[in-house]
């Protein structure tokens, strides 16, 4: 009888550890996703600056040309 309780306890502990691992992997994916999102937001800022600089340069070149 006591062996059965030990077995049930062991099964419960194993299930809890699996849930913890699953939760840990979900957390890891969430952190990875947020890091990738931060990279995209940062890249967007620099890309916008580069595009605006190119447009400004192109506009200046058009203004310099004689008619």
Tell me the layout of helices and strands:
Layout: H1 2-64
Primary descriptors:
1 helix, mainly alpha, 67 residues
Backbone structural class: mainly alpha
Poorly predicted parts:
none
Continuous helix count: 1
Average pLDDT taken over every residue? 83
Helix content: over 70%
Biggest pleated-sheet summary: none
Count of beta strands: 0
Globular, elongated, flat, extended or rod-shaped: what is the shape?
rod-shaped
Question: Could you explain how this protein is built, in words?
Answer:
- The protein has 67 residues and is mainly α.
- It contains one helix and no strands.
- The protein starts with a helix and ends with a helix.
- The model has no long low-confidence stretch (mean pLDDT 83).
In brief:
94% of the residues lie in helices and 0% in strands.
């Amino acid at each position: 009888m006591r062996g059965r309780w030990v077995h049930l306890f062991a099964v419960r502990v194993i299930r809890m550890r699996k849930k913890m691992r699953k939760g840990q992997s979900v957390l890891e994916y969430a952190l990875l996703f947020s890091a990738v999102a931060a990279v995209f937001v940062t890249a967007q800022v620099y890309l916008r600056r580069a595009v605006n600089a190119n447009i400004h340069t192109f506009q200046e070149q058009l203004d310099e040309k004689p008619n």
